[in-house]
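Researcher: I'm preparing a figure for a lab meeting and need a structural model of a single chain. I don't have an experimental structure, so a prediction will have to do for now. The sequence is pasted below. Please return the structure as tokens so I can convert it later.
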Amino acid sequence: MLEYGNLELNVVNLPTGKYYGAYYSCKTEDPRTGPNSGFRLVYNESGELYISTRNGTNIQIHDGKGIVIPSRDFYHRVVLHFDGVFAQYYHPKTGGSNATWSMVWSKPDDICKALTNGLGSGVCGFNSVCVGENQRVSCKCVQGFSLVDKNNENGDCQPDFDSGFCNRTRNDYSYDFIRLQDVVWESSDYEEYWPYEEENCRVSCLQDCFCAVASFIGSSCRKKKYPLSNGRLDQSLDARAFIKVPKSGISAGDIPFPARNPNGKKQLSQKGLVITGYTLLGASLLLNFIILIAFRSRSHCSLADKKKDSGSAVIKSNLHVFTYKELVEATSDFRDEVGRGAFGIVYKGMIRTGDNNTVLVAVKRLDRVAQEGDKEFKNEVNVIGQTHHKNLVKLVGFCKEDQNHLLLYEFLPNGTLANFLFGHPKPVWKERTRIALGIARGILYLHEECDTQIIHCDIKPQNVLLDDHFNAKISDFGLAKLLMMNQTHTRTGIRGTKGYIAAEWFRNTPITTKVDVYSYGVLLLETICCKKAVDLKDNVILTYWAYDCFRKDRLVDLIVGDYEATDDMDTFERYVKTAIWCVQEDPTVRPNMGKVIQMLEGVTQVCVPPNPSPYDASY
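Model: Understood. Here is the structure written out token by token.
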């Protein structure tokens, strides 16, 4: 209730509490009584909802459009729904199990259209379309998009194709459009041409690498960029939206959204949008048949060549064998670099699957691979390819041609654990403990549950990736044997990264799984403290500092300002003690990963750990 008398419905930005523009107003200010005419919102025992004004009059919310339902015979309730619809319902007090709640009135009349002012994504998520159905809404991802979170059908949608048009070689003929009828996104405009022709609108979008969608209404052409917001289906506008897609990325065409039945009412398939027209379907089947024949012929020849040249096609897993040329095309000539490390550089790519869909992949180009021959490379890739665990990055294919060694992994959009831990704002405590436990389970699988034991040799936050739901997945496992001995971060014969290397690397002693336990202990401290293993700026080594704080009973110094962690000091102390056991200089004192998991989960009591570096002068 505003001070000048209006009752309004607003969207609120939760992190800041900022109010966006009102999407509904009762307009209860009264010019006869001046400002502050609206006094309070009243919902009485008779089921009436109205604004009481200071001059004694009552103004109905439903503007006289509602029906009178006697409260003596019916229950009443008023609901502000999650999508912003404000509505009143009634339910008979008698009537048995068949009785249901029915709507008396709702405001606003069209929430999809009303909630398009100001900032935010609108009723539905970004890149989504709001469809009004029976005075409520449903949210739909259009052709070529899928939900970011599969469990939130009203959330954001993401392109299933590479939308970085400015990162690709400019060629107007390499793009096409998905045409959507009666779909409009109110926001996301950055350019408007008026008056303009529809064909010129499409051409202008093709020639502009910033343009994601060309929207044409009447004689107005608007160019839009991602993310698209405030999308809705509106058949009153005769709007046409053209979504730009790579020709190699997704099928394009004239896609009605939604299809209409003969009586003019809108229909929407739950499985998405369907290309209509028997001619288009027939042409598509014929084209797919020709492509299939050509692909099988080429695959047969390529497979024979691979068997002849390197024998790499006889891998005993379901990995796909790619040619180097295919990966050059998939990565746009290795244009989009997303990371690099001891094993090489990682590029973002897009490949076509057997069902003619496209998926994003991470293509790792290995540098300076040890030259033990094709058989050694095949054996190591075969071991990696047969691993299956929710906390390991999945290997989907590889390439071995001459000196080119490349591995294809699933693409994980949320980047590395390092970026997650050491950015701003600080991740929530429960999320960090869940991630730490997931990493431990992934290492345990490598050590004890694989047919062939795998020692990672380089456990660190940069080698842990996060999926859509921030589940931890270990990468670069099983690659240590593929490296030349001098390929390290420390410029020695040691495999690993400074700050995570166990003492036995420096001694003439066998390397066992306990080197990964040591590295995990360092990573565990980083995860729960959100601090780096080695801080050159403050001249701090985290393992030494953590034990010093534990010894002096000052663990809180490790998490100053982290109120979620300080409220759970029992868990924090258990995790710190577990980490100190992991980083013991003597590998025989360190627990195995199965024991580590029991300690983290509280199944096993964690005893007081000894000084991890008893010969260090600081202690």
